[in-house]
Amino acid sequence: MKKCICFLFFIFFFSFLFCGKLKAQIKVFTFNSDSLEVGFGKKSMISKDSPMTFVVNGPLYGADSLPVGGYVDNFHQVKIWQNPTEFGGNFAVRNCVFGRKTNGKFFMSSYDNQSSSDSIQWAIQNGFSLVIGGKNVCNPNSDSNTSRSGIGYREKMLVVIISENVITPYKFAELFIREGCSDAIFLDGGPEVGYSYKDHNSLSKSSAIKLQFFHFSPMYEIK
Predict the structure, then answer these.
(1) Could you give the angle at the alpha carbon of 161 between the alpha carbons of 106 and 165, nearest 5°?
(2) In a domain, 13, yes or no
């Protein structure tokens, strides 16, 4: 009888540790649009001394350590939007431009629907889209499992989710829907997934482009 009790206790204890560890490796960060400033790596004009800095790897980059897609940094089009079919891979799958306009509103739309960058404060071009119009657009039958990072928005809130656990694209997209996001896009996956906040730093040194967030409030982390 004692052996049975010990065995059951061991199963319970192991399950608790496993579930706790699984939950601890999914992080959700939210940023209020009214107090949010965003920059890109060392190219950003925003001071590195700005308080409460959060940095995440992404978007996808090439062999030259520069973003594959176009991007706008502090109202300046650093790189023009690229034709995703010329690159292939995840970049060519449901490729979109994700960013924030000068009126403070977030947006996500097709790369060829960007007539001008004059009204854009910051934006990135990447693939693949996770959520469009509140719907999960990923293949529920995909067995692609890896750690992932992504970015989405709801109302005036920007949402960054990082799964250090392996997760399929469909299940990862569901995390954004759970947070009420109308649109979300993939940032990076595998060993390149990383972020820096407070005392934590798992950023990949090989990725030259990093999204930097400043002066944001409120913020929460699901541990």
Answers:
(1) 160
(2) no
| 64-85 confidence digits (pLDDT tens) | 767 889 988 888 888 899 999 8
Residues 43, 74: Cα–Cα separation, whole Å: 10
Q: Measured between alpha carbons, how far is 160 from 150 in angstroms, rounded to an integer?
A: 6
Helix (H, G, I), strand (E, B) or coil at 197: strand
93 in a structural domain? yes
CA angle 40/173/141 to nearest 5° reads: 130
Q: In this structure, is residue 7 part of a structural domain? A: no
What totals of helices (H) and strands (E) does the chain contain, helices first?
2, 16
For the chain, the domain total comes to: 1
Question: Which pTM value belongs to this model?
Answer: 0.79
Sequence length of the chain is: 223
Write the Ramachandran bin of 68: left for phi over 0, alpha for psi from -120 to 50, otherwise beta.
alpha
On the question of a cis peptide bond just before residue 169, with omega within 30 degrees of 0, the verdict is no
What range defines the domain where residue 204 resides?
A: 25-214
Establish if 19 belongs to a structural domain: no
Q: How many CA atoms lie within 13 A of 3 on its CB side?
A: 0
